Amino acid sequence: MTTSGSTTGLAKPRGVTLRTGLVYSFLFASTLRLIPEIVAWPNVIGYDTVTYYASVLAHLALTPDHLKMLLSTPNYSPLLYLLLVPFARIFGEFPTLRFCAVITYGLLGATIFTFTQWQLEWSPKAGLFASILAASYFVLLRIGLDLFKNVVGLVLLLAILALMQGGYKTPRWRILIIVLGVLLAATYQLSALILLFVALGLALFKLLSGRGSAALWIVTSILPAATVLFILTLLGAGAASAFFSARGVAVYFLPLNAQGTPSSPLVNYLVQYGSYSALTADVERLFLFLYVPILPLALLGLNRNRVLGLMTLALLPGSFSLIVFPEAAVGLWYRWMFMLTIPLALYAANGSLRLVRRVKNKKRRLYAATLILLVIGSMGVGFAVLPAEAPLAYFIRPELRPYFPPTMQTSAIPLRDEQDAMAILKQLDTMMGGDSVLLVHESFYGWASLTITGNTTIIDYHLGQPTDALPLARELGFTRVYWVWWLPGYEWHNYQARLDLFRPVLQSGHLAIFLYSPN
After folding, report:
1. Binning pLDDT at 50, 70 and 90, where does residue 464 land?
2. What CA–CA distance (Å, rounded) separates 189 from 193?
C-alpha cells in the first residue's frame, strides 16, 4: 500500500518530515493518554491497572517462587513486570503505572507512524494522519487504558514488521529484529504469535517468488522468538493457588469453577456462556460495537499489502474461533478482536485519503482530512474524559461491560470509592494479626495488595461469593474472618453478596469492613 507524497491528496503541512512526524505522532498519542489521567487524578483508572499490575508490583520479589508467579495465569509474560519493579520500589506502584501508560501509548503512536513509513512506504504527512486516526480511535484507547503488556507488544510487533521491509539486507538490522523478537516473546504472547504467523507468511511469499535466501533469513530471524515463546509456554504454571508476597502477606486464590479460564490457551466457552446462542450474540455485538464507525472507511481502503493482510488473517481466528469451536477455542478472544484495530485503522486511514483525494481544492482537502479526524477522534475523547456515570450514548452497553467499559474513567471499583477503599483497608491493616484473614472479591484484590502488610493473609475468591472462601479460611485455622464490601444499598455491576453472615466493624464512605459472625 504505497501512498507517496504526491498521491495522498492532502495539502502539505509545513515541516512534516520523517523526524518531525515521528515526534508529532509520539506527542499526540502520549498527550491524549495523559488527559484521562489528569481528569481522574488522584484516582487510578483501569481495572487491570489495580487488580493485576499494581498487585504484582506490590507483591513481587526476585525469588524463584515469585518468578514462577509471573508465568502463571493471568500474568504469563514476565518482562514488563521485571522492568517496572525497580521503578515501583522508588516511585510507588501507581505513579510508575501512570508513567508507563503515557509513555508506551506515545511509543505506540510513533511506531504506527514508523510502520507506515518503512513497511507501507507512505509519505510522512499520510503516516502522521494514520497515526493520529489510530491513536484517537476508542478501541486503541481501550487497549491503552490498562492492557500495558498488550501496548508494549504492539509497539515491538510493529517495529519488527517495519524493519522486515528490507531489514534482512543489513546485519545490524537482522540483529535488531532478532533482539526485538525475543523481547516480544517475553512481553506478550499474543503479539508474538501474530509475528510468527506474519513472518512465516512473508517467508512463503518470498520462497514462491524465487527469493529463497530472503525466506530463509526471515524464518531464522524469528526462531529465537519462537524458542522463547515455547519455553515460556512449557514453564507456564497454570493458575496460581498461593504465594508469600514481598510484604510478608500470604495470598491464596480459590480455583476457578469454569473449564479453563478466559486467559488459558484453549477455553470451553460453552461452560462460561451457558449456550451457543449467547456466545455468538456476544461475539457479534462486540465486533459491531468496536468497528462499525470505521468499517466503511476500512473497506474503502483495502489493498494488497501483504503484511496488513497477514496481520488481519492472523487476528481473525483468535477473534472468531469460539464460534466454530466453542468447546476448545482460543483464549482471550476479545483481546484478539481489540488488536484488529491496528490493521482496520490503517485501512480506514487509506480509505479516508482516497476520499480526500476526490476534493479538488488542496486547502479543502486539508479541511476534509481534519473533519474525518475530528469525527473519529470525538468518540475517543469522549471515551477518555467523560465520567462513568454520564458516558457517550454509544458506550452505554451493559451487555458488553465485561469486555469494554463505558469510559476510561473507570477502575476495579467506582472512582468515587477508591480513596475510601485505601483508607478503610489501612485501618484494617492495624487490626489484623496472625489469627485473622481478609476475604476479597477480585475488584478489591489490588487495593488489599497495596495496603495489607505484615504477618497477615488474603484470600481472593475471584468473582465468586465470600462464602466460597470460608472453607479454606477454616482449614487454615483462622478465627477472625474479615471481608471488604459495600454497605447495603450499594452494588457492583448487579453483583449480589450475602450480608446476613457478616456484620460491619469499620466504615468509610460507601464501603465497610465486615466481620464473619454467623450467629
Report:
1. confident
2. 6
How far is Cα 94 from Cα 88, in angstroms, rounded to an integer? Answer: 8
Q: Residue 501 burial by CB count (10 A; 0-12/13-18/19+): exposed, middle or buried?
A: middle
Give alpha helix (H) positions in 119-147: 124-136, 138-146
Side-by-side strand order, sheet with 250-253: 242-244, 250-253, 457-460, 436-440, 480-486, 511-516, 502-508
State the DSSP code for 104: H
Q: Are 295 and 301 in contact (CB under 8 A)?
A: no
Would you place residue 517 in the very low, low, confident or very high pLDDT band (cuts 50, 70, 90)? confident
Angle at 112 between CA 106 and CA 118, to 5 degrees: 135
Pairing, β 250-253 against β 242-244: antiparallel
- pTM flag (> 0.85): yes
Q: Residues 315, 343: contact at Cβ < 8 Å?
A: yes
Sign of the Cα pseudo-torsion (375, 339, 153, 247, in order): positive
CA–CA separation, 387 and 264 (whole Å) = 33
Q: What percent of the chain has pLDDT over 70?
A: 88
Ranges of each domain in the chain: 412-516
